[in-house]
Amino acid sequence: MGELARWSLKVSRDTDIALRTLLATRGGRKGDLSRFVEEAVNREVLRETIRDIQARHADTPGTDIEQLIDEELAEMRGSFWTEHRR
């Protein structure tokens, strides 16, 4: 997980109870609350990043995007097999 930062958060009592109940039904352990929050934040950051990229490329034809993806995948596959044949 790397270096840790401490956060102080305030949430409604209903949210607190709902989340702690959910974690308890999953056999909650120490650290589960922190892991849940970190995973939720990471998912939301990824969603926002995807939305930003989609907005920037809204005018790009889908065929151009598919071609770029195909080219990058081909390059990555080639380098993967070159590196892992050794």
UniProtKB/TrEMBL annotation:
GO terms for biological process: regulation of DNA-templated transcription. It comes from the Bacteria. Signal peptide: none annotated. Residues 5-77 form the XACb0070 ribbon-helix-helix domain. It holds the Pfam family RHH_6. InterPro entries: Arc_rbn_hlx_hlx, XACb0070_RHH_dom. This is XACb0070 ribbon-helix-helix domain-containing protein. The lineage of its organism: Bacteria, Pseudomonadati, Pseudomonadota, Alphaproteobacteria, Sphingomonadales.
